[in-house]
Amino acid sequence: MTFSERPLVYRVTRGVRTGLAVSVFFSVWATIAYALKDARQTAALGVTLREVVAAYLLGGLFGGAFAGAMIRFMRWAVGAFVLGFVANLPTTLVITNFAAADASLAAKVSIGMILACIGGIVALYIRSDPWPGLM
User: Which of 23, 33, 36, 58 stands 20 to 30 A from 96 (CA)?
Assistant: First the structure.
């Protein structure tokens, strides 16, 4: 039985675990980045490390759950891109909102959507060389 044929609860659970694992990786990366900056540089960002880590964890939780539930769309290229885009969107919008606090709403949404395209591209890459048992 392939992953996409498994029950919905199993797929969502695995998606959440994977999303949280990825968010922990990015949280460690952000912690290292914050540790290498001095206090003035981090204050100029306008975002605390706690906010960045919370955004990554929430995005990993919801994005992973969504990706696990909708994994069957990976059968088609357009479905894979949309799935990766939408799964990545919560994290990118939250990070963009923190990082560009003084920007207009339109600018925040535009930047967040452009960054979410990275998730779509990654999903297309995964689909081009399917992982064993994924589909």
Answer: 36
User: Which residues, 6+ apart, have CB-to-CB distance to 78 below 8 Å?
Assistant: none
User: Closest by alpha carbon to 63, among 13, 10, 14, 19?
Assistant: 19
Three-state SS string over 36-54 comes to HCCHHHHHHHCCCHHHHHH
Compute CA distances 73 → 38, 87, 117, whole Å.
Answer: 44, 12, 16
Helix/strand/coil for 6: coil
Q: Which residue has the tokens 């560009």?
A: 100
> What confidence category does residue 133 fall into, taking pLDDT thresholds of 50, 70 and 90?
low
Please tell me the pTM assigned to this model: 0.74
Neighbouring residues of 94: CB distance < 8 A, sequence distance ≥ 6: 55, 58, 59
